[in-house]
Amino acid sequence: MKLTVLMENTACRDEMVCEHGLSLYIEANGQRILFDAGQTGAFADNAERLGIDLRQVDLCVLSHGHYDHGGGLGHFLEINDHAKVYVSRHAFGDYYNAEEKYIGLDWALLGEERIVFVGDNLTLSDTLSLHTCEAFPQPYFTPASGLMVKRRDMMVPDDFRHEMYLLIREGARRILISGCSHKGVMNIKTWFAPDVFIGGFHLMKLDPVQEATRLKFTAMELLKQDTVYYTGHCTGDKQFAALKGYMGERLHALSTGITLEI
Known about the structure:
Elements: E1 2-7, E2 23-28, E3 31-35, H1 42-49, E4 59-61, H2 67-70, H3 73-79, E5 84-88, E6 95-96, E7 115-118, E8 121-123, E9 128-131, E10 148-151, E11 154-157, E12 165-170, E13 173-177, H4 185-192, E14 196-198, H5 212-222, E15 228-231, H6 237-247, E16 251-253, E17 259-261
Parallel strand pairs: 3-4, 4-5, 5-7, 13-14, 14-15, 15-16
Antiparallel strand pairs: 1-2, 1-17, 2-3, 6-10, 8-9, 9-12, 10-11, 12-13
Helix pairs in contact: 5-6
């Protein structure tokens, strides 16, 4: 499997544009996949600089209904005339941050005929599947970190029912792709027990000093399985550094422009 980071908060090359967002280009088992579309159309500019032709993408997956993962979707649909876009059935919702600023998707895309709404699970092929894990127990408590959803004119903590994950099987290996892991990276690794985990950990709100114990606990729990982790975006730089101190070569950083052969 080959994965190129088209958008992430940081960039490893001067010519790459970076923004608070995530977009990954994946080649796996003969399929070309766009996983998330960043905050703007800048991910497509990076793709062009890297020699990646988004017109050839076979399918697109949005991990959840936040603007920093789906803000560039409209631009992708203009570039690519055939790929279906798989989103949770709850992806279009009234999602807000702690300041009650709308952070959801562009509602104008709701009627786009190429969008496919996913329930709990969807098998795309013998090697690709999508999962929400909505009915799964969550052994590790994960706070909403101030993220909210408006339901019946009331602001309530988001339960992230709109989040889903891409599972890729290559031979005996299981590779799990997550956007922000809002349901908790420790929960997700428990549910899937992947060989490789790629995606944000959503720990950027944790104070690395005051909550150092929690970061250590997270690292120790992640190390209980033989998974190798690649993370960035919403993990946080200081939080990543703290985890890296415990996890060593089991944890690697994502950055715009990086290509991984996994």
